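=== RUN LOG ===
request id: a7f3
mode: sequence -> structure
chains: 1
length: 576
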Amino acid sequence: MAPVTKVNDENLLQKSSGELDRLRLALSIDGALVYEWSLVDDSIVWSHDVSEILETDNSEDLKSGIGYSQFLNEDGAALRTNLAHNPSSDLSAFQIEYQFRTKSGEIYWLQDRGCRLADGAGKPHRIVGVLRSITDRKAHEVRLNYLASYDELTGLLNRTQFRERLNHVIGESHRTGKSAGYFMAAIDDLAVINTDYGFDIADEVIVGVGQRLKAILGPTSEIGRIAGNKFGIIVNPCGASELLATGQGLIESGKPLVTKTSAGSIPASLSIGCVDFPNHAKNSNEAMSRASEALESARKTGSASASAFCASDEVTSTRRRNALIADQIISALNDRRIVLAYQPIMSSETQKIAFYECLVRMVELNGDIVVAGHFIPLAEQLGLVRLLDRRVLELAMEMLYERKDVHLAVNVSGITATETGCIEGYLAYIEANRDVSSRLTVELTETAAISNIEESARFLSRLRGMGCKVAIDDFGAGYTSFRNLQALIVDSVKIDGSFVRGLAQSQDNQLFVRTLVDLAQYFNLDTVAEWVGSAQEATILRDLGVDFLQGFYLGEPSLKLLESESSITSPSSRTA
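=== RESULT ===
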């Protein structure tokens, strides 16, 4: 039996030795080190070459607890000492993290995880553990912690952290009664720098301006980046009487704002809007909103200007009126009180209705009809126009399904045509209704199209790809040119009504309309003249070569379409 037992013991040892080798191999692949630390003689045995893993030539120093501790930071050394000397129960598990510094100065973060084995008296006599490098994880954590408070591009406070600081200062101001000021500083014409030099260079300008502002601020002031081209600045203390002068001082102190970039030195200027508290702001939202209002006022006077918020009766009244109209628009949308009025557009050749333009109307609770001019401009300011654009499209599609004999034209705002989120939703609805999209024309004003010509061109191209016709509205009121018409591939243009009104009495307008018609015909585009008010104007326009006519003389907008199909012709099928 003894020999058999001996053989079994040897097999067991061989098996254990093989498992240990596999374990060591797996740990080395994982970048981990297993160690056994004898607290009796302070010796450390490592699973494999520790100097290779920790990238140090001092392997002999690492074979003792004292030698190993000299490579640790103060906290790490204290944690290891605590493991070695504090009494504990047997098999006491632990997990600690600390820094390991080589003699060449390199620093690693290590996770030390294992258990302590105690003798009969409960005193630790052996520690077995596993070391892993967590340097990358720690770097990531540091990065996340940094980004939680600071803007990645400029290194200034980010919007969230700055808002917290602003709320704190406003709270202290209300508690103590001491005045402070919030300043919103915006780089003027950054979009031009983006266009001329590219976004990377514009980023360099943003960084340079931010650092310049930070350098000129006092020790009690704070600065953060709150938007693409905007910085928030807290000046504390700052009395109401000093507010505007401080804003102008920031602009002047920053001159000349010339930033050295990889594309050369680029000049920039600042406009500033400001508000004081506790008088005019209860919290950060109110401060930012009112400083933004003041900034818009400053920009109206030109670049490098400053303006302070003023709670005038006129401004308060306007704000209340805007809020009331916004509520009316939302309520009308929710209650399905947004409707369409259809104005006929006549063929100048056949003098029959070719198609209709859909004009948005709002029905008040008492049944009164509100025309677009009373609420669309404000809807554009408040960002509600995108909701109206979508509702108009839905109503037009419903009518196209109901009436197979008509072609309709709808207007779309520049916001819907150029903002990605709006574009995709709008186009998705048309894609879902392609059965009738060939009888739909989408009109975009010339000024809106030219303000973002690349995005507008993509939007109009996708519309045409779905079978819609596209048109430029208010043609001639913006920046008409061959280049723009080449970029915006459209089917028709609508001549701005300001050139049609009083056409019979104005030779200049007749010449201008003739020029616009010639330009449109060069690109093989249909032309529509709006605001036609008399038979004389209709005749002149027809003689000038205008294809379609629209105006109160020919037909006023109506909430119902004409029932007779015999008076309707198909719109021209010319293509650009």
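=== NOTES ===
The first strand starts at residue 32 and ends at 38.
The chain is about 45% helix and 25% strand.
=== END ===
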